[in-house]
Structure prediction request, 1057 residues.
Amino acid sequence: MPSPLLQIRDATKIYYSGGFLGQKKSVVALDNFNMTIGGSPATITTIAGESGSGKTTLANLVLGFIKLTSGRIIFDGEDITDMDSDQLKAYRRNVQAVFQDPFGVYNPFYRIDHVFDLVNRHFSLSDNQSEYRDMVEAGLNVVGLYGEDVLRKYPHQLSGGQRQRIMMARAYMIKPKLIVADEPVSMVDASLRASILDAMLRLRDEHGISFLYITHDLSTAYQIGDEIYMLYQGTTAERGTAVDVIDSPQHPYVQLLIDSVPVPDPTDKWDVNISLPSEEEMRTAAAQGCRYYPRCPHRMDKCLEEQPPLFMMEKPKHEAACYLYEEREVAPQELSLVENRPKSIAAISSRSRNRERIAAAVLIILGFALGVIIALNREPEIEVRTVVETVIVTAVVTPQEAVATATAMPTDVPEPEPAAEEVIAPKFVIERDGAADKGSITWGEDTVGEIESADDRHRYRLAGIAGETVGIKLITGGRGLSGTGFFSPLMTIYAPDGSIVFAFDSARRSNSGELTFGATGAYEVLLGADDRGRGVDAYTITIEGEKPEPTPLPTLVPPDFVIEREGAVDKGAIVLGEDMVDEIQSADDRHSYSFEGVAGSTVEIKLITGGRGLSGTGFFAPLATIYAPDGSIVFAFDSARRSNRGTFTFAETGSYAVLLGADERGRGVDAYTITFTAADG
Amino acid sequence: MSQQLNPHPKSLPQNEGVISNQNRSSSLPVEEGAGGRGKNSRTVLNVEKLRIHYATPQGDVIAVSDISFNLYEGETLGLVGESGCGKSTTAYGILQLVQPPGYIVNGSIEVDGTEVLNLDEEELRKFRWTGLSLIPQGAMNSLNPTMRVKDQIIDVIESHEGKQKDREALRERIFSLFQNVGLPNRIYNMYPHELSGGMKQRVCIAMAVALNPTVVIADEATSALDVVVQRIVAQTLISVKDDIGVSLIVIGHDMGLLAQIVDRIAVMYAGKMVEIAPVENVYAKPLHPYTQLLIDSIPSIKERKPLKITEGITHDPRNPPSGCIFRLRCPFAWQHCAEVEPPQIMMDDLHEVACHLYDEHFAERRANALATIANS
Prediction:
């Protein structure tokens, strides 16, 4: 019997959030999950379930972006949690990923061939240029594309289907054994989906690559999937071959799910209306019993006692976790564990080998208890992840008035600082508190921001003078996306006109570079976890460069916006005092400004929209958004409100950012006037 | 019989482009309506020759190209097509929400006899949400994160009806809206982030119907939701439609969902309307080759069938091909398709299709094409 390609054993992933000491909230994303993917012949294993069922957590675990709370993931006989960096690199070569968003994974600045160049650089596929070109061409051909059609194009010039197939081609070039495909077709048009599914089938049948296919779309799983796991709140509700499970679902949840898939036949319409129980009822879900209990039409008292094990259905390998099938045999646990295992789990696995037919209840309790022990053993109280330092080159602007006032130039310091010579670096300190990241941002001696999790995003401004160059260095630690070739910004620099002029991503090998400012003005730096929130445990960002000449203080007058319509295009200017500081090319233009807020002082904000706004619709479409120094939104004007007038009192002293511009969907704003006036006091 | 559409009509005679194989009157008889719920209804929305361009430095992109269709009272019309085909732009055009650089080149949009394009700004503001309203795409992000649910709904009501003095009545009114869309009263004081995706979606539906509009347009209103929640939201839409008596346009790409909830389907391809028919017809006997492709590529959970791959060539939207817009991808295209733009041909059962195959002059070609389909 060939050894399995991937085995997941008693995998549990718990996310913690918020709270002091004992009051931490936890969410069990995956609960004692087991799965086996055989190596040969290659298969497509589907993981299906609604959002929150744990399917993306599973994908991220297998990709090594996040770590298990307890349990094991064994790939080709090796436990991935214990891999050193060389092994991890080899693992990355064997396990590749294709993500949902066929646009977000591409760096918009580079042509398509850059994707392949990155792969070649990282995995050293070939030094020989012509050999390398042949490899790229072969990869593209497998997915039905040709190099001359796509390689010199930018991502936005290709269809979603083409972009997704390029991701498949990229993965194929590395010759992995497994591709984790997380919703690869959900953002692609129906008539183009088949081409992606076909590429998956060809990679499976002609090139022996297995897939872990994560989806909520049962119909594609039915068309191409071999085995399917239906997840419900982190547990397997049912599994079997895709055809068996979808043709004759046994678990009440899976029955509802399959019944809810709209049938593309107008003569076969839904005959009953369904509803969900209220959230209160949902919350009564027992800690130990069946997760589906609150919604289940067949619930029994027994279901509250303990989680049902998987029972064997009529067809081979078809199993459902529901006490309706209690009279049937409990499915044997697949526990053919490998020899090469870490010490900490040796105790469980030696026991595991003999427990194949032990009653499920005992198994679960045992597993749970051991899981807890492992969790306790593994979790240090506080782990210092990293110390991050940022030197922002900045002109320190000292406002003369201690009132909030709009300015087109950055005013970076929270307190008026006379020493313009001194460059003060904000300092990022992120510590791990349990599974959640905790940290702070200090500026000089003062703490200016708190970091609640690695997902937190922070914005800062730096003054850029046209022609000046700064060096930027970004050091990522932990389990980034490095080596995946995917774009995921860790730091993005926006020019004063809102355009992106610099983007670092966690996939780049060397994260250092230079930025020469094209225009004088306030540049905005967004720091934070990557867009998909993945893969960033820790990072260090340092911006260094020549200290610029102190920027002359602009007269502190509110900017004046004048937008006129010229044909179908908006044209206009932003005037500060007498000077035109910016041009508006269209209503889509976004402009950001920062101004000094002093705790307790109040500004009056008046926004006049003209033209065909969303007025009267009640829908939200921000025209002016004010961000507090910590990046949180504290004020949002939208085009739907009738009276766009309000006062706003600053809770803390610091630099507030204002984003002005067309509404989120770019609709409906012909002209607007925004006036910030300092209120009394 | 066949008649070429003038791509830049100066005047907009009613239903000029629709011709009939049965020598029927070219304008749709009001009393016939669509099958099912739309039967014996009057027309509440009439879109004629609507054309919308996006200005770009390289020239205009034709987003919507002279499309015409009707919506009957109490009816649910599905508007389908792939992303970028102009279906959302059509919706925003109807609502006069096309953003620059987009602009309406020509057309007529009549709602209950009111020409929307002639309304001035103030009239339009009043008309929105009483005559026409929208459940936007990604509705979950269309709620102001800093306002409570009640305040957003009150905003909608008061922006049309002025300050409501009787706060208790206003509250009751909002509760009854909640009831219409199956939301519990306790969300009244909540912020959007405290609600689940399905609930936010239903808040948006409640806002859209708060002023009893004649026509509601739902733009991909359920596409970001899980299948069970999607079904609940779709049911909500239909039950609200029936309770309040609005007419509904559902824009979507999920052919399965549309089969469940709509009465008629209008299929768009690259800015053109290629087929409009009662829903049963579209699924049972799609006429336009693009609709056939669309129906063929619906993944099924009933039978496992071979994948049908059709990428085809997509044209440059600034420079569409001559003649038929679909001819570059069409398996049946011939010389005539490159020369003459197909008119909208009226078949039986209120089934309209824009394809030369259904011109009686080319009956033989049609027979061959049908034989090819039958054999494949």
Summary: Chain A touches chain B through 81 residues (CB under 8 Å). Residues 182 and 214 of chain A are 5 Å apart (CA to CA). Residues 360-378 of chain A form the longest helix (19 residues).
